[in-house]
TrEMBL record:
GO terms for molecular function: hydrolase activity, acting on glycosyl bonds. One of its GO terms (biological process) is extracellular matrix organization. Signal peptide: none annotated. Belongs to the glycosyl hydrolase 79 family. It comes from Galbula dea. One of its GO terms (cellular component) is extracellular matrix. InterPro entries: GH, Glyco_hydro_79. PANTHER family: HEPARANASE, INACTIVE HEPARANASE-2. This is HPSE2 protein.
Length: 591
């Protein structure tokens, strides 16, 4: 009886066993951790295959509500961040690299947020630093004249029209990596001591930043320094105005923010800025933008608060009272772990994956009070703070947190999530300093290629042993569903994409039911590649290692077709995407 109703997609009548949960709340993560009553009369259940030597195999029945989406998120939902530290360590001069532009272009459309811990120590100088030729290269030219080589590269870029792309010699990149490694120690010392040195952004540096965003198909969001203060603690906008005027003269299409984690200002400079004052500062910035024709209708986002603890919520409430209608979206930031104490097992903890839900509720509660319907963004999200840890934050294992973050935020209606960082010091980035994509990059690329902005509700039913007294069973199988991306021309409109995280140490089986029954499915199974397992920085898709073809070409993303009606077998400790073709879902036929 149970099987018949589940496979048909019909609601289970009152005669079904009370412990069978067939419908989860719309938009939430759907987990296969269900139990049946322990009475003898209720033990009849769906068959569970248990091959020799394997325990706890579960057959899960899965259907999707195809009539209407439960949430619609931004086309730029998965977006990127660059930290101003790239000025300090020199990587900003290499953003014109063809390889970096190719990698960033693969994640378009997206926002590119230029912000971070050093936002409020950034000063703009309208000095072009004109590139001057200093003669041709002689013996040991690159070793002795590194800065000259940057200048020569700038000269070559200046001669290009439109998108400016550079080819940097290998020796030049090698010297830059040595420089960045030395600066990494300085940056970490600043971060741990919470004492930051000032940074200067020249006009030429801003040109390079905008060129990278524009060539990559990304929309630049620039966070202005909020810690330039007048004696009465109001914002001193003189330096920001200089930057705005220069950007407008170049007709740069930029959106704006003011400051970064204002709740930390007291520890940074010994002076706090409360929510009411910050709101007045945002109103002042909005007035400045309206005075400049290029930015009179530019978007403004904020207040970029940190984790919503009690004092941070108070700051947000003060801000929303004053400037809630001034910003186009409300933003906050989140890091799951302290990077100094991270272990690989941390990325497998379901309790950790669930910490974000409580924060979302706190932010939503404030907004529902002051500006109902206002869009919410999660900016600067990363697996761990303090730059992360090598072979952990940049490994396959970190992807469990990242993919769950994407699924959870989309299902809760968060409009945009900004990943910290695309390229950076430390180990939280998507691309390493050899310009090679890391596991989270490939995960993000798959998400961009396969996932559309419409979020669908899932109906799921499964079996599990009764939990022991006093023990909470947390969900180790996480399933999300969206309409397939309209930008993917390999699939007709009406197709559906599932993405699944299996944190179990055994494989799980999923049977598609109802509207998904007997449909052809394309599998995109992402697993670690090589002997390092979960620590690996290399990944394979359906058994084939992923790597760039050349500096200008990403690899072809090939699915593994599964025959219609086949049970999905999810390997242990993996992440996977499944496109269910030709569902003709009403929710997915139109934009």
């Amino acid at each position: 009886l149970i099987r018949g109703f589940l496979l048909s997609g019909m609601p289970c009548p009152s005669s079904c066993p009370s412990g069978l949960l067939a419908l989860m709340a719309p938009g939430l993560a759907l987990m296969a951790t269900f139990s049946l009553p322990s009475q003898a009369g209720d033990r009849r259940a769906l068959p569970v295959e248990k091959p020799p030597g394997v325990k706890g195999r579960t057959l899960i029945l899965l259907d999707v509500n195809t009539k209407s989406p439960v949430r619609i998120i931004s086309e730029n939902f998965l977006s990127l961040q660059l930290d101003p530290s790239i000025i300090h360590d020199g990587w900003l001069d290499f953003l014109s690299s063809r390889r970096l532009v190719t990698l960033a272009r693969g994640l378009a459309p997206a926002f590119l947020r230029f912000a971070g811990k050093r936002t409020d120590f950034l000063q703009f100088h309208n000095v072009k630093n004109p590139a001057k030729s200093r003669g041709g290269p002689g013996p040991d030219y690159y070793l002795k004249n590194y800065e000259d080589d940057i200048v020569r590269s700038d000269i070559a870029l200046d001669k290009q029209k439109g998108c400016k792309i550079a080819q940097h010699p290998d020796i030049m990149l090698e010297l830059q990596r040595e420089k960045a490694a030395q600066m990494h120690l300085v940056l970490l010392k600043e971060q741990f001591s919470n004492t930051y040195s000032n940074l200067t952004l020249t006009a030429r540096s801003l040109d390079k930043l905008y060129n990278f965003a524009d060539c990559s198909g990304l929309h630049l969001i620039f966070a202005l320094n909020a810690l330039r203060r007048n004696p009465n603690n109001s914002w001193n906008s003189s330096n920001a105005l200089s930057l705005l005027k220069y950007s407008a003269s170049k007709k740069y299409n930029i959106s704006w923010e003011l400051g970064n984690e204002p709740n930390n200002y007291r520890t940074l400079i010994g002076r706090s800025v409360n929510g009411s004052q910050l709101g007045k500062d945002y109103i002042q910035l909005r007035s400045l933008l309206q005075l400049i024709r290029t930015y009179s209708r530019a978007n403004l986002y904020g207040p970029n608060i940190g984790r919503p603890r009690k004092n941070v919520i108070a700051l947000l409430e003060g801000f929303m009272k004053v400037a809630g209608s001034t910003v186009d979206a409300v933003t906050w930031q989140h890091y799951y772990l302290d990077g100094r104490v991270t272990k690989v097992t941390d990325f497998l903890k379901t309790r950790l994956l669930d910490t974000l839900s409580d924060q979302i509720r706190k932010i939503q509660k404030v907004l529902n009070t002051y500006t109902p319907g206002k869009k919410i963004w999660l900016e600067g999200v990363g697996t761990s703070s303090a730059g992360g840890m090598n072979n952990l934050s940049d490994s396959y294992a970190a992807g469990f947190l990242w993919l769950n973050t994407l699924g959870l935020l989309a299902s809760q209606g968060i409009d945009v999530v900004v990943r910290h960082s695309f390229l950076d010091h430390g180990h939280n980035h998507l691309v390493d300093q050899n310009f090679n994509p890391l596991p989270d990059y490939w995960l993000s690329l798959l998400y961009k290629r396969l996932i559309g902005p419409k979020v669908l509700a899932i109906h799921v039913a499964g079996l599990q042993r009764k939990p022991r007294p006093g023990r909470v069973i947390r969900d180790k199988l996480r399933i999300y569903a969206h309409c397939t991306s309209y930008h993917n021309h390999n699939y007709v409109r009406g197709s559906i994409t599932l993405y699944i995280i299996n944190l179990h140490r055994s494989r799980k089986k999923i049977k598609l039911a109802g509207t998904l029954r007997d449909k052809i499915v394309h599998q995109y199974l992402l697993q670690p590649y090589g002997k390092d397992g979960l620590h690996s920085k290399l990944v394979q898709l359906n058994g084939q290692p992923l790597a760039m073809v050349d500096d200008g070409t990403l690899p072809e993303i090939k699915p593994r077709p599964l025959r219609a009606g086949r049970t999905l077998v999810i390997p242990p400790l993996t992440m996977s995407f499944y496109v269910v073709k030709n569902v003709n879902a009403l929710a997915c036929r139109y934009r």
